[in-house]
Specification:
It is built from two helices and four strands, in the order ββββαα. The chain is α+β, with helices and mostly antiparallel strands and 58 residues long. It has one domain. This is Small CPxCG-related zinc finger protein.
Length: 58
């Protein structure tokens, strides 16, 4: 008997947990949360800093 373990995505920004097949991925292959639109990957911290304090990112 085969059993498929479901795979889940947990957003680090909002804590939402969703089935992995409901998550969209950006052009580089990093997941993007469908609830809050937060992205993961190397530029995620830069985008978060720009959203909080845009004048510091310049």
């Amino acid at each position: 008997m085969d059993f498929d373990w479901p795979t889940y995505f947990e957003c680090a920004a909002c804590g939402t947990e969703l089935p992995a097949d409901s998550v969209q991925y950006d052009d580089l292959g990093y997941p993007q949360c469908p609830e809050c639109a937060a992205r993961t990957g190397p530029l995620a911290s830069v985008e978060a800093a720009e959203a909080v304090e845009p004048e510091l990112a310049d």
